[in-house]
UniProtKB/TrEMBL annotation:
<dbReference type="Pfam" id="PF01638">
    <property type="entry name" value="HxlR"/>
</dbReference>
<dbReference type="InterPro" id="IPR036390">
    <property type="entry name" value="WH_DNA-bd_sf"/>
</dbReference>
<keyword id="KW-0238">DNA-binding</keyword>
<feature type="domain" description="HTH hxlR-type">
    <location>
        <begin position="18"/>
        <end position="108"/>
    </location>
</feature>
<dbReference type="InterPro" id="IPR036388">
    <property type="entry name" value="WH-like_DNA-bd_sf"/>
</dbReference>
<keyword id="KW-0804">Transcription</keyword>
<keyword id="KW-0805">Transcription regulation</keyword>
<dbReference type="InterPro" id="IPR002577">
    <property type="entry name" value="HTH_HxlR"/>
</dbReference>
<dbReference type="GO" id="GO:0003677">
    <property type="term" value="F:DNA binding"/>
</dbReference>
<protein>
    <submittedName>
        <fullName>Helix-turn-helix transcriptional regulator</fullName>
    </submittedName>
</protein>
Length: 108
């Protein structure tokens, strides 16, 4: 597939923007890929992510989770049992990306 087939938008400076490149750039933000990988294996909780991801702090983790929600890759579920807590799961869109990332892993 040629670069031209992947490109369908133009940036302000006239450069063409590939949707795949735009998506990968958004996913490459701090902690996001690591969160996505962990979410592909199990349900996530904020406190466990803080422990499991080296260099994560509350602010950076909150931002990354919110951005993944905005990308419709993660869903935030409030569990109204005592103790009240929040869990994060991959959405259908996020689950659909798992085989793609598995193929990419095979190339490395």
């Amino acid at each position: 597939m040629s670069q031209k087939n992947l490109t369908n938008n133009s940036s302000a400076d006239g450069e063409e923007i590939c949707p795949v490149q735009k998506f990968l750039k958004a996913l490459s933000g701090k902690l996001k890929l690591e969160i996505f990988i962990l979410a592909s294996k199990s349900t996530l909780r904020f406190s466990s992510l803080l422990r499991d991801i080296e260099g994560a702090n509350k602010q950076s983790l909150s931002i990354a989770l919110r951005e993944l929600e905005e990308m419709n890759l993660l869903e935030r579920v409030v569990i109204r049992q005592k103790p009240l807590h929040v869990e994060y799961n991959l959405t259908k869109k996020g689950q659909a990306l798992i085989p793609i990332f598995q193929q990419l892993e095979g190339l490395v």
